[in-house]
Amino acid sequence: MKRPNHIIAIDPDIDKNGVSYLETATKKLEVSNLTLVQLIDYLKTTRAKLEETKETLTIVVEGGWSNTRTHRRSSKDTFGTASKKGYNVGRNHQRGIDIFQIAESMGFHVVEQPPLQKCWKGREGKITHEELAYFTGIMGQTNQETRDATLIAWNYANFPIRIKNN
Q1: How many Cα atoms within 13 Å fall on the side-chain side of residue 123?
Q2: Are 32 and 146 in contact (CB under 8 A)?
Q3: CA 32 – CA 75 distance, rounded (Å)
Q4: At 144, which helix (H) or strand (E)?
Q5: What is the reported pTM?
Q6: Are 8 and 59 in contact (CB under 8 A)?
Q7: How many whole angstroms from its chain centre is CA 25?
Q8: Sign of the torsion formed by the C-alpha atoms of 95, 97, 99 and 105
Q9: pLDDT per residue over 47-66, tens digit each?
Q10: CA nearest neighbour of 115 among 3, 11, 38, 20
Q11: Which of 22, 26, 119, 158 is most deeply buried (CB count within 10 A of its CB)?
Q12: Which helix (H) or strand (E) covers residue 147, if one does?
C-alpha cells in the first residue's frame, strides 16, 4: 500500500472529536477538537484544497464499534453506573459510524482503525503528551482525544514509534 500524501485521523467522541491532520512528506501535524458540524465543514474545506493539488488523502476513523468489549466494569459500579457507561459507549460508537459514513459519502477514502493497544504511561494505559511528543515532535497543547487521533495517524502512516526507556 502506498502511503497517502495526507492523513486525517479521527478519534470519535460524543461532544468533540479528536482530529489529527498529518502531512506525510514532512510529518507536519495539526490537531484540533471539533464538533460533528465543525468536522463536516473541515472535511469540505480539506477536500476543496486537495482537489486543486490532486494529492491523496486517507481518513482513518477509530472504530471501537468492532470491539466486543469496550469498557471495564468495576466491581464498585452500581446498576445505574454500569448502564450509564454502556449508554455512553453506544453513543460514542454511533458517532464513529456516522463520521465514517459521512466521510465516505463525501467521496473520501475512509479506513476503520480498531483501537490501538493501550500500553502507555498515562491513566488506563493511554498515551501522554510527553510520550507522543518524544517520537512525533508535536508541540503545543494536546488532550487525550487529539493524542489518540495523532497516534492513529502516525501508526497508519507506518512511521516509527520509539519509546524512551527510563
Answers
A1: 2
A2: yes
A3: 35
A4: helix 144-156
A5: 0.88
A6: yes
A7: 20
A8: negative
A9: 998 888 889 999 999 987 76
A10: 11
A11: 22
A12: helix 144-156
